[in-house]
């Protein structure tokens, strides 16, 4: 599986047919499935009003690209779910190990670039591959992968609009075969993008800034301090709460842009401000980051990577409940 539309699928022009016939056949294939835009229009993404769909794919897009060697498909569900059945050719990655790490006692932080690169190299990925991620519910862990790769500068990483249950409900092929990828070489060449990641000191400094806002992607119970998952419960002063799952339809796909805009603006999360997203360990927070940046076009959104597991366990950070 592979795409960036850098090359056509292998096998389309095999054989020794006449050149004219090959050209005609190729034209027909290009018209039918020759790029992300064609597929997105066929599956409705272009009608949803999103700001940018470059990092978003559909189930049909994945099916069309199962034999594309420029694409690597990753399943970031748990081992039991993967073993029970997955999209053909998908390689399982343990997202909470590849894209999170405990550092200085804080769980769930972004690992160093060389460690992420080594994990990708071990499963055959290179900087030129299009890396596509899906999971069990609404691309929540897939969004963590996309965000980490955005921080470190992978050129083309995408997530599924939906999840594996959606794929299965559509009657698409499911496999229990486990791929055996050949290790490759991978190294990030760009400097980390510090414009999309924040530490606790920055968030503290911005609490009272009217040009900034903290968007808490946890549940209402966590936000109110009734569901406590750290030494202290509650929320950051002046923050607003928009549960990440409110951005999804029942089938795990994203709401249209007009509904997303109504949802977030209705809670005070508006463009023109610097938005800080957080949750418990910056997984739900990355989902909200993706919605605000890619789907709604917000220009300044940062994930507070330490999130509540850091904030709620410190003794020097302000909390309301």
| Count of strand segments | 12
Q: How many angstroms separate the termini?
A: 47 Å
Helix proportion range: 25-40%
- How many structural domains can be distinguished in the coordinates? 2
What percent of residues are in strands? 5-15%
Task: Identify the CATH homologous superfamily of the largest domain.
Answer: Rhodanese-like domain
Averaged pLDDT: 89
List segments where confidence is low: pLDDT < 50 over at least 5 consecutive residues.
2-42
Our count of helices gives 13
Strand-and-helix sequence, N→C? HHEHEHEHEEHEHEHEHEHEHEHEH
Radius of gyration: 21 Å
CATH topology title of the largest domain: Oxidized Rhodanese, domain 1
Can you walk me through this structure?
With 321 residues, this protein is an alpha/beta fold. The protein is built from 13 helices and twelve strands. The strands form three sheets. A five-stranded parallel sheet has the order 1-7-6-2-3. The chain has a five-stranded parallel sheet with strand order 8-12-11-9-10. Helix 7 crosses helix 12.
């Amino acid at each position: 599986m592979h795409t960036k539309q850098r090359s056509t699928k292998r096998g389309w022009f095999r054989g020794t047919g006449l050149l004219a016939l090959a050209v005609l056949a190729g034209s027909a294939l290009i018209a039918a499935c020759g790029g992300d835009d064609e597929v997105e229009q066929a599956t409705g993404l272009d009608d949803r009003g999103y700001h940018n769909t470059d990092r978003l794919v559909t189930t049909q897009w994945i099916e069309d690209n199962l034999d594309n060697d420029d694409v690597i498909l990753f399943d970031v569900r748990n081992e039991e779910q993967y073993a029970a059945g997955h999209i053909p050719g998908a390689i399982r990655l343990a997202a909470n190990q590849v894209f999170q790490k405990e550092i200085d006692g804080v769980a769930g932080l972004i690992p160093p670039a060389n460690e992420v690169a080594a994990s990708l190299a071990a499963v055959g990925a290179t900087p030129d591959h299009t890396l596509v991620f899906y999971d069990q519910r609404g691309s929540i862990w897939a969004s963590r992968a996309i965000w980490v790769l955005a921080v470190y500068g992978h050129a083309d990483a995408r997530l599924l609009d939906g999840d594996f249950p959606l794929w299965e409900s559509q009657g698409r092929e499911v496999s229990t075969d486990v791929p055996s990828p050949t290790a490759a070489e991978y190294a990030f060449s760009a400097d980390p993008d510090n414009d999309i990641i924040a530490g606790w000191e920055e968030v503290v400094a911005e609490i009272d800034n009217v040009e900034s806002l903290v968007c808490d992607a946890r549940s209402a119970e966590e936000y109110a301090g009734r569901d406590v998952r750290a030494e202290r419960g509650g929320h950051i002063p002046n923050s607003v709460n928009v549960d990440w799952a409110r951005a999804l339809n029942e089938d795990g796909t994203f709401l249209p842009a007009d509904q997303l805009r109504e949802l977030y603006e209705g809670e005070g999360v508006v463009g023109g401000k610097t938005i800080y997203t957080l949750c418990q360990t910056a997984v739900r927070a990355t989902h909200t980051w993706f919605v605000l940046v890619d789907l709604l076009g917000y220009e300044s959104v940062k994930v507070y990577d330490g999130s509540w597991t850091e904030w709620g366990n410190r003794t020097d950070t302000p909390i309301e409940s």
